[in-house]
Structures are given as C-alpha cells and as structure tokens.
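Example 5.3 — Acireductone dioxygenase
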Amino acid sequence: MATDLQAWFMDDVHENPQLPHHCNPPHFVSSDYLSELGVLQWKLNPEKYQDDQELEKIRNVRGYNYMDLLDLCPEKVENYEQKLKNFYTEHIHADEEIRYCLEGSGYFDIRDKDDRWIRIWIKAGDLIILPAGIYHRFTLDTSNYIKLMRLFVGEPVWTAFNRPQEEHPARKSYKINFGQKIGMPLEAH
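Solution (predicted structure tokens):
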C-alpha cells in the first residue's frame, strides 16, 4: 500500500516544537529523498495490527522479535513535559528506531546530508524506520496524543546518544553508508 507520509524542510523558528514549522513557502520532501537518507516507511492498517500479514512479514524479514505499545499523552505519562523535552533532544541510537503509529500523530525530525532539519509527520497507519546513527528527535503535534508500537531486534534498548556523536560507531557507519540503500532487502512503500 502506498504511503501518504508527509515530510518537509523545517523553518528556523525555535518556539513551540509541536507546531508544523513549515518554511515559507512550504518545501516538501519526497519519499525517495527520505529513502536516500536511509528512512524506510510503510502504510499499514492500524485497526488490524494484531493479525496484519504485511506487518508480520516486515517483522520476520527484519528480525523484529520484540514489540511493545506506548500511549504518549499528558494523562498517561508521568513527567510528560520532561519526557517530551528528552525525546526532542537531538540524538542517535546504535540500532534502528522502528515506530508504528496506531493512533494519534507526531513528528520525527531528521537531519539531512546538509544538516537541515526535515520534519516527518506520522499518523495512524504509518510505520517508519530510522537507520542507526541518523540524528533525529521526536515530539507530538498539537493533538498531544500518539499510540506507538515499538519494535526491536532482541531485547529493547532505548539508549539515546545526544549530539555530538561523530565518533560513535553507529554514526560512522551511517556516514559511510549515507546515500546508499541502508538496511535489509525489504522494499518499503
């Protein structure tokens, strides 16, 4: 199924990260450009996530054997404002970051090769994979609610390495592979 994931270059305004932050005029980013940066994406049916054959295929091919669900909203998360601030701090991970949006919406921001911020708006049905070593951050949009499925290979690791991390092995590997197809041979939509 084709994805309707929206992505755009961000403006340089640093107030309220939960706003869209479009440039003026808006400058949208194609799925192909995201793919060049190593970002993979699918559009799935979130209503059938428990027995979705396409999701199962993605998990099997990529080795995602651990899964959990996270409701992120002020009513369900202790120290919500602080958690959101932590998620919004620019960082990398040593492993891929895999998130499947089941309800609500939010923003993943990634850095491109010219160090510009690209905002990716994920909504219900969007599955996104950020490669290990890519600088990124996350925040909710103004809806203040998202339900995410988090997938991992093996035991879950949530360690974030805040920028700068140019000497981190995952960052070095990302830079070597930059612009090339990153990941295993499974076509994203």
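Remark. The chain has one domain: 6-177.
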